[in-house]
Description:
The protein is mainly alpha-helical. The protein has helices at 4-36, 39-46, 50-57, 60-87, 92-114, 118-128, 132-135, 137-141, 143-156, 162-181, 185-189, 199-216, 245-251, and strands spanning 232-233, 236-237. 72% of the residues lie in helices and 2% in strands.
Amino acid sequence: MPPKTAKRAPTDAGASARERILAEAERVFGECGFDGASMRQLAEAAAVPLALVSYHFGSKEGIYRAVFERRAPIVVEQRLAGLAIAMSEPDLDRRLELVVKALVFPMLHLRAHDRDPSFGRLLANETTDPNSERRGIIREMFDPIACAVVEALRSALPERTEAELWWAYQFMLGAMVHIMRDVGRLERLSGGLCRPDDEAAAVRHMVAFLTAGMRHGRAADAGQPSINKTNTMGGKKHATGDIPKERRGATRGGAG
Length: 256
């Protein structure tokens, strides 16, 4: 009777091939986007027959979704753990720093660990792809944790409006994804001083910058009801058209 391990070998080989397909698909999709990649290209990158890709994933969208399903749970789990630590911090300034770190650390850690910006590019492409809403990947896998991050921001910045919190979240996301997508420009421009693969430095500088922006950066009309700013002069919007006359003199001296 053959040993039991011999019976498991095909399954193990199949799992290995599936993982290799996913790893290569992440790279190809990151470089080409969803529309630019083909099933044949994915199969060739993984050095497997096209039929095997279809067997495991069914379609290009099937493998595309599987790439996200492979990465997203790790990112979400780490963010939830970071948010739990943040919410246990009574000092609101420190809590804000920990919330920001909970958002950016998992992705920057992923990039530094893998030495590959592919998933960052892939995620950035998906968030701006016109067909993203139809696929529902961001909505299903990342929207719940986005709401949790904003809820934590709300507790750390109780004086901020709902709109400010969501703008802050979007700006944080943009900064993080931009670093995730960097393929060498920052290192070249800085003469080697700054490397996105330097996880500790990337997290330290990004958390400091984003935290300061949320603490001290506020739009002039933040907290005020939205109004229709249609005051014009000579066909152009007046620079102070939405500011009461008694306040205009004060604004000329700069922000307080």
